[in-house]
Amino acid sequence: MATIKAPARLPELVKAAFAKALHEGDLSYFPTHVQDVRVGALSFQLRFSPSLANKPKAPPKQQGTTSSPSPKPFDPFAYTSPPPRLFVADVGAAHFLVLNKFAIVPEHFILATRDFKPQTHVLDADDLYATLACIRAYEEGSSSSSTAHGGGALFAFFNCGAHSGASQPHRHIQLLPVAAMREGLPEDSAWSVLASRLDGDDGAVAPFRTFSDAIGLDTSREDLHATYLRLYEQAVRAAAAAKDDEPAAAKSGEEAAVSYNMAMTRDRLVLCPRLAEGGSIKDPDTGDVVGQVSLNGTMLAGTALVKTEAEWDALRRSPRALTAVLKSVGVAQPHFVEENIKL
């Protein structure tokens, strides 16, 4: 088994690479407005980026003749594809780190497989252990003076399946510095990473069911993978019961049976089965639909991103509309209590 080790001084490497790539135009950063909204007993982050509408779009597909094969889709996570200034470092022989080309959170970076592996398949032990190695290296490389408000912490998430918010077929796990996720919030904000608060399989604080277990920075490769497979099987059973289907067994290297999000922090591994990618947002006064919100694995951090000012205004005025979407995207959590509180 090859050694999996994240680079030393990982925070410095990411920070320097992000600053240089941003300066030289190799990535785009979209600053956001952010506000706490109440979801039950949770403080949830609502974010809106006015400039996100200017994000470059993929060129339209060309209509070819039946005799000409379709061009191979561009793979941004192919080992030879990222511009050199987006590359951060290798993590063992099978994974590497690259900056997110379109960042909402500063210093957002990605762990990708060197060889193409499908995003839709059950994760391998090395995928999980490489993620934990990055979390450990980031904490070890952070100075003691920067650890306030999660300065040395990473939130890792994985989107799998049509309902998970996944957008690229090449396997990749995304990593966000928790301190950067707090930017824009007031010092006394009650927000904290949701995944770290989920302590069991009932996830009573969230409107959707989650399955989680404790891990540590020293958890072994084998134990980490076994924990993931156990939680995955629980998530599959929950989704199957919600849809009156028969659950399928979990095997590494095979297609996942359900859409799900995974989150990893220094002390917890969490899986959330997904039944939908998002839902409609209605104006609280008129009842008119003003937009659609789509959610990926960042909802396990307790965050949601909207793309228009109408959506931003509607959800700030009526946080219960966000709660309704969160209830609909996963398996309903019967123990969730919707408190009548406004921030």
Automatic annotation (TrEMBL):
What is this protein called in UniProt?
Bis(5'-nucleosyl)-tetraphosphatase
Q: Tell me which domain of life the UniProt entry assigns to the organism this sequence originates from.
A: Eukaryota
Q: Which GO molecular function entries does the Swiss-Prot or TrEMBL record give?
A: ATP binding; ATP:ADP adenylyltransferase activity
Enumerate the spans annotated as Ap4A phosphorylase 1/2 N-terminal domain.
6-183
Any idea where the ATP adenylyltransferase C-terminal domain is? 206-331
* Biological process terms in GO annotation: nucleotide metabolic process
One Pfam assignment: Ap4A_phos_N
Quote the InterPro entries the UniProt record gives. Answer: Ap4A_phos1/2, Ap4A_phos1/2-like, Ap4A_phos1/2_N, ATP_adenylylTrfase_C, HIT-like_sf
Q: Where is this region: Disordered?
A: 52-75
> What SUPFAM superfamilies would the database entry show?
HIT-like
